[in-house]
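Onboarding guide, step 5: your first structure request.
Type a short instruction followed by the sequence, for example:

Predict the 3D structure of this protein.
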Amino acid sequence: MRAPIGPIRESRSGRATISKLLNEIVSVMKRLDAPLPNDIEQRILSQFDGLGYMMKASMQRDMEKSLPIEADHLQGYLLETARKRDISSSSFRSGLCESDSL
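The system replies with structure tokens like these:
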């Protein structure tokens, strides 16, 4: 998904992918005993809904410019933790592989 957030958010499959990714990330964080509020997924989805239609994450803009991205040390840490603790992260992993990072 290399589009701005608006088209992704408004498509049925895009919204489902966002929700699944968020669920996987929250699952890993909870297994690490991160102090997350019970409604963190709903809060983050609400923030997504408030983003401008053409908004792109800074990492996405860097990828478009062929600049280095921070996926290896940010998202890579969560993926490695998920692997070590046998936590499902297939959607998260496929999203990062699309970025050619991991």
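Each response can be followed by summary notes, for example: The longest helix spans residues 12-31.
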